[in-house]
Amino acid sequence: MIENIPSPPRDALVWPREIQRNRFLRREGNPQAGGDDTLGDFSSLKQLLTADTDLQRFPIRAYQYVIARYDVDGFRIDTLRYLKGDLPRLFGNSMREFALSIGKKNFFTFGEVFDPQAEEDIARFIGHNTNDGSELVGVDAALDYPLFDALKTAVKGFGPPAAVADMYQRRKAIERNVLSSHGDATRYFVTFLDNHDVKERIRFVQPGDAHRFDKQVTLGLACLYALPGIPCLYYGTEQGLYGRGSDPAVREALWGAPGFDQGNVFYREMQRLAKVRAEQSALRYGRFYFRPVSGDGQTFGISPFQQGVLAFSRILNDEEVLVVANTNTSQPQSLDVIVEIQLNEVNSGHRILYSNDSASVAPSPTRPTAAVTVHEVNGTTGNGPLHVVHVTLQPMEVQILGNQ
After folding, report:
1. How far is it, in rounded angstroms, from Cα 338 to Cα 374?
2. What CATH number is associated with residue 335?
3. Which phi and psi angles does 339 have, rounded to 5°?
4. What CATH number corresponds to the domain at position 150?
5. Which of 3, 57, 303, 340 is most buried (CB neighbours < 10 A)?
């Protein structure tokens, strides 16, 4: 007896038609418990054997069609490290070359490599390693999970600012031979402080004191908008949403639960930050330096303590923008910060471009130092001469300062 089994709906099939071949599909079900999580279907989505060179040309052509048909300007590539057979680099290279062939000179690709310690993994996929004999130039950038892990921890006061500096030093060593199609790869990483995959929003609401830690949000986002990269604001963060531990806790905005309140305090703060970033070219294109700080005016270094002060500069031509952030949740901080000696004359002032605290105190004029000890971010020690500014920060206050 032949059983009458209904055909599946067309949407349940694998498309395009060219990849409807058994040899292109893994056909082994979901990943095995305790096994390689890159090997397996994802619910109803069937895994392609992407190492097959005969298969690779079909998804490449399909996405080139999307560029031509819908005039898109870039692709975010989910779970990039799951692709085999050097397909991540081939895909990025193919999208860029097709876009160039039809007049799109700045087509942008970035991939998700979901691992806070993924610097080596990221470096395998982005740009071109000058030690590699291949002529391929892979995807342009990646989601910056290493920065997310270090910066969020520091912003919350659970880790030292030095951990953020160490992350960048490690990246510099790993990517010293990597160039993207846009130049310095790190400059184009997509940076963030919360998203759905980590099941946690940056904002924490303490029972009984809902706004106690609100300034951590604006402190973190001010750093994000001033650090190298393309800052990505996760939907709902600008509305003050909070939550952790489950999909519903971090996807409210996706399901349309809250209204879009343009008067929300977080929304207004994001407007202010976006305006500062738009007006200060150094925050988008400038060179990047961590700044040693000192509480006694004698010994300078990158803060190695939890709830310390994170300080860094962006410099473009003759403009320096200085960012200082006090991650301490209860204590103000008053300290000296090193600034570029050639761009900050003695007695010159700094203006506050942004502060997240209404009680902000303007920094003192630039002054020279006597003999001091400076522990640099690269592990060396120096003695000056230096120019410094003295800053006073309220708990969880961040200041973005422009030189005059």
Report:
1. 10
2. 2.60.40.1180
3. -125, 165
4. 3.20.20.80
5. 303
Q: Which residue's structure tokens are 């343009």? A: 262
pLDDT in tens, 342-388: 999 999 999 999 999 999 999 999 999 988 999 999 999 999 899 99
CB atoms near residue 263 (< 10 Å): 6
Range of the domain at 380: 286-403
Which are the contacts of 256, defined by CB distance < 8 A and separation ≥ 6? none
CA-based nearest residue to 89, from 140, 146, 24, 52 = 140
Helix (H) or strand (E) holding 121: helix 119-125
Number of residues assigned to the chain = 404
**Which residues contact residue 50 at a Cβ distance below 8 angstroms, ignoring those fewer than 6 apart?**
56, 82, 83, 84, 85, 87
Residue 14, in any domain of the structure: no
Which candidate, 172, 167, 139, 141, places its Cα nearest to that of 153?
A: 167
> pTM above 0.85?
yes
E strands, 85-193, are 108-111, 128-129, 141-142, 178-179, 190-191
Q: Crossing angle for the helix pair 161-174 and 145-155, nearest 10 degrees? A: 170
List helix spans (H) across 157-246: 161-174, 214-226
Q: Are residues 156 and 122 in the same domain?
A: yes
Per the domain annotation, does 307 fall within a domain? yes
Q: Is 184 part of a structural domain of the chain?
A: yes
